Each structure stands twice: as structure tokens, then as C-alpha cells.
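Let us practice reading a record.
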Amino acid sequence: MEVQSLASLRVELAYIVLGTVFVFFGLASCAIAAIRKSTEVRVLVWLGLWSGMYGTSLLLRAPEVAGVLPPLLLKCAPFTINFIRYFLIVAAMLVWSELTLGKMRRTAQATAVLGSAFGIAGIGWFMVKGFDDTLLPYNNLIAVCAVLCLAAVVTVPALSARFLAFRSPILTVSTLAFTADALFRNVWGWLRLPHIGLPLLDEAVFAFLLFSFAYVAGQKVFANERRLLSIESELEIARQIQASILPTGVPTVENLTIAARYLPMAAVGGDYYEFIQVDPHRIGFLVADVSGHGIPAALISTMLKVAMQSVASCAGQPAEVLRGLNRILSSQLRGQLISAAYLWLDTEARTALYSSAGHPPLLRWRKGLLEPIESNGLLFGVLPDPSYPVCELSLETGDRFLLYTDGVVEPENAAGEAFGDHALERVVRGNEHRAPAELSERLLTELRHWQPASVTQQDDITLIVIDVA
């Protein structure tokens, strides 16, 4: 009897150790998923729940654990065990849904839904009748069918290639072992044959399956991480290339003070600006905004750099600059559009010429008034050779010009109200005596405060401020 008691104690201790390991593994998986905060690690969440539920059931079935539980938890133990018995298949199917593709993924999700329905019904029946197993055989039948289906998927090469996101020999072996064990247990029980005492066999098989899943899930997560790192590396290269095509500073022009700010929405953006300086007194300013965001828009903005070199010879003629850019780019845009504005300043003749292509108006601050100046033609990419009207302006000491993209006026606050022209005028008016660089920084600060802290920048922002001295 002493030998039998010692053997029984060892088995109970093994259950406690295994249960603790499964619960710890489940908590660790969920913690990693919470830290990563990515849809790609959902498999770790379901894996953690699956492992934690199984480990909890082992611990609750151990008399030594039950003996140290507070009365309230001890009272809830039968309900918890019954809940786990019904919903273990749900967690397992959710894990499989993350590792399979196509119809098999949808089948796993449908099985999880069906298992949830039986689980809810079984728990309800348990709460009414007490510890009752009336619906558990049906739940087990669902599990057996699911296991047979998945065993076929991992063992048949044609099915594996079609339905498995990641194939691994260890997953094949563990699934077959678990299938054999599940069939043996369920068929033996359905035939009501005498129980065969093989301590810890079920738990060992489950541990093998669980950790093979963990291995495959880790491979899946790491593969996605490597892909993301590769994408981030490529984006960084694209950002550096885009930064190289933008002006590295502002030019020095007699009687002008210039400030330029560029803030892309993402690593790369679709805004572009350029200076074309002819001599110390004459300079052209181009601001353009490509429809869309990210790499496609950035590629087109790079094309603007090349196109600008082709029209630099007519820098003093805004209409010809815009017509030339449209002619060069329109056949390459593939359905995308570009808005642009071009301002030519001659500080010696004290004149300015302005034209735009579907762009927000040029703003001129003069003697306490902020005046929008519009001289719009069609966006680039609409027609092959449209005309662009030109507005001629005089330059006076104290004039301030603002060229910008719609990322300056379109950000919305928590109430859904756009920053708009009125807020822009308020900032310009309140910083009348500040230098262009200080006004630019103040305006960007106001934009950040206007948007809720939880909202990221929704569009690229380009701003050029020019003061006439």
C-alpha cells in the first residue's frame, strides 16, 4: 500500500507540475502577444488560452491543489472544469485557423463557432442540472471529426501545400500522435470498455502537440517579423532617396527671408517642393501634392524632380512651367493626379507671378490682411495640354507669402472640424512679427494641438513662408 500511495503521489505531483507548466506557457504566450500588439501574433493568444485552459483543468483535478483553494474558488471549480471541457475545442480550432489557409481556415473557424454553441448549451445545462455530461459526447464528436480532418491535411502533401500556411514535420508527427490518442480515448469510451490506466499519456501527447504548435507559431511570427523588417529597411532607403531630392536648405535671395517645412505622413510622402533660383534677385517656388500616400505617391514626386530640370529654362514663366510639367508627367501618372502651385518672385523689379494647377490658394499677408490669391488651372493628369492662367502681383516691403499643401488646413479635431482657413489666419495674424521659421514652427505646433493626441497625421504637410524685406 505504501508503494501504491507513493506511486499515486508521484502521478499527482506530475499532474501539478504539468498543469503549472501549461498555465505558465499560456500566460507567457498571451504576454508576448500583448507586447507585440500585432494581428500576426493572434495565434499566440489562442495558443496561450488553449494551453492555460488545459493546465488549469489539470490543476483543478489534483486533490492537493483543491485542498488549498479558498472555499469560493473550490465551489467554482466544477463549473470551471466543465467550461474547459466544452471550450477546449474552440481554442484549438482558433489556433488552427491562424495556421491554415482558404477553405480549411474557414472550416476551423466554423468548427470553433459550432463548438462555442455546444459549449454555451452545455454550460447552461450544467447550471440547471448540475455536473451533467449530456452534451459532452456531441462536443467530443466535433473534436474527433476536426482532428481527423486536420490529420488528413498535415499528412497528405497536396492538402498541406494548399491549406497549411506553414508546414513542418514536427507538426505532422504531433498531430498524428494526438489523433491516435484522441480516437483511442473516445472510441474506447463509446464502446464502454474497461479503462486502461496509462498515467500521463494524454498529457504527454498534448504537450507534444502544444509545443509543436508553439514552434510553428513562432516560425510564423518570426517570418512575419523578418518580412516587416525588410519592408522597414526598404522604406528607410526610400525615405533617404526622397530626402535627397528635396532641397537641403533654403536659398539666399536679396530682400527675401525664406522658411520651408516638410512633414510626410508616413516614412515617405507624396508632397514635393523645389526652388529654382536664377540669380540673387529672382527665384521660383514650386509646391506639389500627389494624390494618395506612401511609396506610389513618393515615386511620382521623384518624377517631379526630373521633370523640373526640363522646365528650369522657363522658370520666369509660371504658365509654361506648369504646362511643361503636366506634359511630361500626364502620360506616366496611371490615373493619379497632382496639384501644384508655382510662384515667381523678382525682388529687383518688385513683381511676382503666380499660377497653380488645382492647388490651395497662395496666401499673401499685407498690412494686417490675409488675402487668398487664386489662379487655378486643371490638375496634372486630367488633360494633356491645358492652359494655366497667371496672376501678376506687386511686391511691397512687409509682404508675407504662404505656399502650402492641403495637409495644413484639412486636419480635424475631435469634433470632426477641419483646421481650415480661419484657424490658419488666426495663427498668421497672431505671429505677424515673428520670422518665417518661427511662424512655420508655431503653425505646426497649432496643428498638432488641434488634432487629438491619439490621431496620427492624416496627410503630408508642406509649408513655405516667404517675407519680403
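A brief commentary: The first strand starts at residue 256 and ends at 263.
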